[in-house]
Every structure is written in C-alpha cells, then in structure tokens.
TrEMBL record:
Its main location: membrane. The keyword Amino-acid biosynthesis does not apply. Keywords: Membrane, Transmembrane, Transmembrane helix. GO terms for cellular component: plasma membrane. It is a multi-pass membrane protein. Belongs to the acetate uptake transporter (AceTr) (TC 2.A.96) family. One of its GO terms (molecular function) is acetate:proton symporter activity. The chain crosses the membrane at residues 61-80, 92-118, 124-142, 149-167, 179-199. It is found in: Membrane. This is GPR1 FUN34 yaaH family. GO terms for biological process: succinate transmembrane transport. The keyword Phosphoprotein does not apply.
Length: 233
C-alpha cells in the first residue's frame, strides 16, 4: 500500500476512534428506552403524591406501568447495556427496572390481601435504602455529563423526601406533596436526558446539550449508552 493509502487509512481509523462505538454500534443505544420508562412511570406516580390527580386511581395506574414500562422495559434496557459493555448502564437500568417490578408486585399482592398493607416503618426504610443506593450510583456519574449527574443526585434526594413523607400527619403529607413536585422535576430531567441521547443517535449530532464532564481515569461516558476510553493530554 502506498504512503497516501496508509495516510488515508490512518485518518479513517482515527475518525472511528474519535466517534467510538456510535458510528457503527454493535447494538442500538438502549438508554433512551430505559430513561423514558423511568421518566414516564415516575411522573405518573407523582400525580398521586402531589394529589394533582386522583391519588388512589393514579397510584394504581402507575403500578400497572411499573410492571412493564418502568419495570420490564427498563430492565431490558439494562441487559442491552450489557451487550455494549456499559457496566454503569447495566447496573442502573436493571436496578430501577427491578425496583418498579418489585413495587408493582408488592402493591398488587397487598391489594389482593396476600400481603399485609405496606408498613410505615418498612416503607420508610425501603425508600431510605433506595436513596442510599442511588447516591452510590451518583458517585459513579462524574465521567458522564451534567444532566445525568444531576438526574441521579436529584433522584437520591427524591427517595429521601418520600421516606420523610411516609405517614399521616399533616407535616408528612405536606412533605409528600413537595416530594411529588420534586419528582416531576426528576422525571423531566430523565425525559430530557433520554431525548438528547435519542436525537443524537437519530440525527448523528448533539441536538440537545448535556454538558459532558471530563473523563475520569481515561474513561468517558458522556452519552449514557456509550462508553469510551480516551487519551488524556
């Protein structure tokens, strides 16, 4: 091969390296599916928490979506992230997919009388633990982007607000309503993050800014579903 041919090949290889797996991905980016499943189901539940909609009926509807869209679809997105060697995406989507399916089955069996009604202290402990788990996941987002980083931090705060609002006193009811409003914001961030990833994949360029953070230890996850190893200057 001539020198010009080698130079052209080197340029093409460099272009592939710069674009990472996004140019010819092994699989489609599952992140928008997972983020949409999380966002819509979360927003639906907040209608019940804020009492902007019928609390009981809306909660039941959210539980129904929790089985499939928030649960199964999000869990499948996590499995697809595994195919892309994205450990963070796998853990995050599988965790929250399993959360929604677990919440849905518990609520269904409680309504059927198989399980006892949700205990207040147990509910508070469960939400607190999920806040801790989400906080630990947030610690792994410093190589992603500002939108994703804020999504996990705000979600951890949401779990803790919901935990504090468990109960029937007026103060706890007020806190639950505030948590519901906060939850709408969390859902909006997830919708934005998912749409940004989807539009970039569809149009081949970044349409909605997500403000990528600097790589950590030569690893970048600027797009939720795309992991890159980079050379730091």
């Amino acid at each position: 091969m001539s020198g010009d041919g080698l130079a052209l090949l080197a340029q093409r290889l460099q272009a592939l390296q710069d674009d990472g797996v996004k140019l010819n991905p092994a699989t489609a980016n599952p992140a928008p599916l997972g983020l949409y499943g999380f966002a819509l189901t979360t927003a639906l539940l907040q209608g019940s928490k804020t009492q902007l909609t019928e609390p009981k009926g809306t909660a039941q509807m959210a539980v129904s979506f929790g089985f499939f869209f928030g649960g199964l679809a999000q869990f499948c997105a996590g499995l697809l992230e595994y195919q892309r060697r994205n450990t963070f995406g796998t853990v995050a989507f599988c965790c929250y997919g399993a959360f929604w399916m677990s919440l849905a089955i518990f609520t269904t069996l409680s309504a059927a009388g198989v399980f006892v009604a949700t205990p207040e202290k147990g509910d508070r402990l469960m939400l607190t633990l999920w806040g801790i788990l989400t906080f630990l996941l947030w610690l792994c987002t410093f190589h992603t982007n500002l939108v994703t980083c804020w999504l996990f931090l705000s979600l951890a705060i949401l779990f803790w607000l919901l935990a504090g609002g468990v109960g029937t006193s007026s103060e706890r009811v007020t806190l639950t309503k505030f948590a519901g409003g906060w939850g709408f914001m969390v859902a909006a961030v997830a919708f934005y993050d998912g749409t940004a990833a989807l539009m970039k994949d569809v149009y081949g360029k970044q349409i909605l800014p997500v403000f990528p953070l600097k790589p950590v230890n030569k690893v970048s996850l600027g797009d939720f579903g795309t992991k890159r190893f980079v050379e730091q200057a």
